[in-house]
Amino acid sequence: MCPAEQIPSTPSAQVLFASAAAAAGPAHVEVPVAYDALLLAGFGGPEGQDDVIPFLRNVTRGRGIPDERLEEVAHHYRHFGGVSPINDHNRALKAALEDELARRDIRLPVYWGNRNWAPYLDEAVQDAASAGHTTLLAIATSAYSSFSSCRQYREDFARVLIDTGLGETVTIDKVRQFFDHPGFVAPFAAGVLEAVSAFLDDGVPADGIRVLFSTHSVPMQDAERSGPRDVDWGEEGAYAAQHRAVGEVIMADVTAERADAGSIAWDLVYQSRSGPPSQPWLEPDICDVIETLPEQGVQAVVIVPLGFVSDHMEVMWDLDTEAIEAAETAGLRAVRTPTPGVDPAYVSGLIDLVVERLDGTPASERPHRTDLGPWFDVCRPACCENVRAGFKPAASGIAP
Fold it and tell me: Would residue 387 count as lying in a domain?
């Protein structure tokens, strides 16, 4: 049974800034909606050395973190000339989405805005409204459920509509979280298969290979509250459950192609934690795990950036730099597999999610690779609470 089938209906639901079809709070919107435009919502990143600290101030706004502590993170960006790859990746993704829309003869413009750096979401929504596009469908560049990967985007949608005064005229719905959509899973499975096959064909035994599925760590309190509160996800919440479910699917796909890969072990690991040592975050850290692998007889490690849609700074620094160095120090062969980026399967899958909402596709007909899907179109009450900040107004979900 998928989570949507376990959640009771909410007839008196309040969904802020929603289209008429989503306003009542159905788990899945199964009637067609005539959207005017798409809103591609990104995280944002600096594009020069002078941008780094102002960008990090935006990311940590409201937390009172002094610049000297921000500089500890800034050196990751400064190592790459102060430029995050994320904006260029989103420019490429926007162009790829526009090409796929044109190929299918779907006439929807794509507006792109970021949460933390230019071009900002505020500008994108104002540009859309100025062009007469007021019924928007958002695609956030994050596949999983947690405060930082879903609700924070929804809160920013609401903030933008409130701050710009457009809340009376503009609505913003959001496509479902796509962690188990075939278009998202396929590029990862292909990358793992290629890496595993290369090691096997080079004489590394299956029990000498370890696959590490890596994702961004989050505070345990946020993890516990990720996903709908009416489902028991365990102490690590829906966030970890979704990653583990996708990891299982990918390894099953690999074994289906390579029977000799059946005994390859895998782990879900975490990276990029940034909180104080006193605050529990999801563990284990990828570098700590890599350090233990030689004593387990592991000779080669496949590092899979499962929590990322493109080569973010966290991929380039925490995986390509720190994790690879940890593997070299441990005497392990290592390879990092690709992120989806603008892989045709991924791009096509995102437009499939759009078509679901344009057509009102029944949930029973929506593709998903795990038993957790298809995920919700309208987030459920109290989904992905941020304990530190509490509930703020959020679009695309039932209040609070």
Answer: no
Per-residue pLDDT of the chain (400 residues; tens, 9 = 90+): 466 555 544 445 699 999 999 999 999 999 999 999 999 999 999 999 999 999 999 998 877 788 888 888 898 899 999 999 999 999 999 999 999 999 999 999 999 999 999 999 999 999 999 999 999 999 999 999 999 999 999 999 999 999 999 999 999 999 999 999 999 999 999 999 999 999 999 999 999 999 999 999 999 999 999 999 989 999 999 999 999 999 999 999 999 999 999 999 999 999 999 878 889 999 999 999 999 999 999 999 999 999 999 999 999 999 999 999 999 999 999 999 999 999 999 999 999 999 999 999 999 999 999 999 999 999 999 999 998 889 999 999 999 9
Looking at the domain assignment, is residue 32 inside a domain?
A: yes
Domain hosting residue 121, numbered range? 3-178+343-365
165 and 204 together in one domain: no
pTM score above 0.85: yes
42: left (phi over 0), alpha (psi -120 to 50) or beta: beta
DSSP string for residues in 118-157: SSBHHHHHHHHHHTT--EEEEEES--S-SIIIIIHHHHHH
| Class of residue 80 by CB neighbours under 10 A (exposed 0-12, middle 13-18, buried 19+) | middle
Residue 110 maps to which CATH number?
Answer: 3.40.50.1400
